[in-house]
Each structure stands twice: as C-alpha cells, then as structure tokens.
C-alpha cells in the first residue's frame, strides 16, 4: 500500500557523532558499554549515525541505565534484535532519506484510509482466471477455510469506526517501558538476541521514522505515517516503542483497555495499522484478537508479512 511522496525526516541535532570520539558517552553524561554506531542504509552510508547499539546482549536493568540519555541528550532507549535471519540494523535496509515527518500526518486519517482500502479490496468482486478453483482449493488445504470479511472485522463493517477513547492510565509510561524491556531481555519472547540501543528522536513514537525503519514496507512505504498513529497511541495509551526487529515492532502500554468494548475499539485500530496481526496471526477475527492480545495487555506487538 503506497503512501504519499516523501521529502525527508525533520531532525533534531544528533548527539551520536560525539560517541565516535568518546565511546563511553561520558561527554553526554553517560556510561555506555562497548558498542557501535550504525550509519548503514539501503542506499549506502548515511551522513550521520542513525543509532548506537551495545555489542553485548541486553540484560534486565539495562534499559533503566540508559534513562539518563533521554534526560540529558535527547537520545531515546530502544531494544534491537540482532539474532534474526536478517542480522542487525546494519543489514535492515534502513531508508531514512525516504521518510517524511510524522507530525505532517493525521493519525485518524491514516487509519481510516487503511481500513477503508482493506474493505474495498476484500469486498470487490473476485476476478476469474484459469485454474482459480484449484488455487482456492490449495489455499484452503494449507491454511484452512478463512473467515469472511464481515466475520473478520465484526462488530464493525466497511466504514471506519473511529478512534478508540483513552482509558485511565495505570502506570507511568517510562516505568512501564522499562518493565517491558526487562521482560523482553530476560524471557527471550519476541527477541532472539536483544541489544540496548540509543536513537536521536523527538519522541518515542518517532523512533521508526528517525532510523528509516522499513519493516512495514510491504504494507506502507513511509513509516512516518505509521509513526503518526504511534504518536496518537502515545497520547491516549501511554505507549513507548520498546523494541524493533527487521519486521517486528513491540510497544509497551501504560493504559491498556480494561473492557471488551474498549479492547475491540483498539483492536480495530490495530487491524488498520497491521492487518497481518489478525489475518495471519493466531486469532483470525478482530473480536478474538481483542480478547487475547489487547484486553489488559501491557505490551503490543506488530509484524508485517
């Protein structure tokens, strides 16, 4: 799904070049472990480092140790995974030059566009072609009978249902982020070889755009449009971008939905943001996804095929 033509990410002064001469980060008020600066992109070297990440595997407590960077230098903590088949961020096909500014996009407009385009595609008459019946039978044999569109998105329909209301916040967003980061570092869930990282970004929601992350490329080629949604979730649900892999995004959530009605409304936003979470996940319908992956959950994960 193609987004608008983009002109480049608006940036703040980047303190990362100082780490080239001072790897410990003491000039920035930090005490960093051994690590490396990443300036590799899909188009060759970038003109300045996009992120720093530690050489050693992240351990519980490491996220909190990076918190001074946020306060003193504008560098935001992140976990990145170097253990996947695509390697670390130096091999992730980062495209910072192709990313716009998240503040130039409206979250609800982005979600409504995604929702309504998906509905239009699903409800359009299927085209006939030679061998269609055999292909459909093969798909059913491998994946099973897939639910119809109205079953997938119930209790909603083709028209965008609107943004979910903000629940009561039950935790400080940065405290919750540290808790989720520690859990990810300790459990092996979602991340195979997590490393602590620092990214120069205006706010946590902007981190994917700041590094030109291309994980959702098969769905949206300007990740800043998705970051506009993350900004809205940051405001309403207290999310923080906690981890990135080549194609997966993990968020902490300080104000998760506490009722099924709230969870279904949030699940509709998740469906527009990343349909693969539902159509290719363990729960093939929005209601089931809301019950198992959204209701009361303190972390949300997204993966794009």
TrEMBL record:
Family annotation (InterPro entries): DUF4253
Sequence segments annotated as region (Disordered): 1-27
Domain DUF4253: residue ranges: 195-305
Protein name as catalogued: DUF4253 domain-containing protein
